DNA sequence: GCTGTAACCTGTCGGC
DNA sequence: TGCCGACAGGTTACAG
């Protein structure tokens, strides 16, 4: 699925088109996404103005104002729309081609007529609505770890999150409670850049290796965002454009190919049921 | 409490 | 060409 760079790319694409617009209507064609849409989903969104688009980990958060012409909501009147793209979710702006209309589950129509379409053939994606005051305690957001691109994500913070963990580095870095936003692709890529084995016990990472890892995580995410994310099978950005970071993968999906660093053969292993790609010679 | 695995759902791809 | 199984970027529930 869309990991942090893909969600951030979508957020930026939507921000340009949505900010300041109101929802003229919302069509909830299929309410059973990963979880059922909240009650009165469409009615609660209709007429609301988009005040801001934010991202927390892999979650997209849309701040919405009140339904009257008053742009500034009073306490308790605002609403937050949470969107998670799951493994295969896509948000497409405009009408475009409609190759699989049965997988288009929610359509937001803006006051200028623009259609924002949420497609997700696997239906692992999700949406929720809640008042701003409930955000801090929201069950999907409350336990998330630090944002890896925020200044607060330091080597010391990363190391404190790994200390005492006996699971593999790969498994721990995929845990959204440890760091918010990393997924299968960027964990493999960050571990390669940090020259750390995905099989290494997370708690064994000392300050020097933690510094390499925190730097690698930040670097790979920033490069991926600059490239517009990675386009594998399902991902395109909000305007339908392909990301091109996959062309810069150093180990992910490169089983059997030479390591770009030492020339050894890149290996694919399975950890917790997920593919991990690594160079056994470089990564220790 | 921690860890690993299965399950959710559906499209795609490779092998036979 | 068609069928079948494996696999896919995420997250949760549950068993050990």
Average pLDDT rating: 89
Question: How do the strands line up in the largest sheet?
Answer: 1-6-7-5
* Helix proportion range: 10-25%
Roughly what fraction of the amino acids lie in strands?
A: 15-25%
* Major beta sheet summary: 4 strands, antiparallel
Protein model, in words:
The protein is of the alpha+beta class and 284 residues long. The protein is built from 6 helices and 10 strands. The chain has helices at residues 4-18, 41-45, 155-162, 169-174, 184-193, 207-226, and strands at 23-28, 50-56, 59-64, 79-84, 90-93, 104-110, 115-119, 126-130, 267-271, 274-278. The strands form 3 sheets. The chain has a 4-stranded antiparallel beta sheet. Strands 2-3-4-8 form a 4-stranded antiparallel beta sheet, with helices on one face. A hairpin with a 2-residue loop joins strand 2 and strand 3. Helix 5 packs across helix 6. It is globular, with a radius of gyration of 20 Å. 37% of the residues are buried. It binds a DNA duplex (16 and 16 nucleotides) through helix 5.
What keyword list fits this structure?
10 strands; 4-stranded antiparallel beta sheet; alpha+beta; 284 residues; DNA-binding; 20% strand
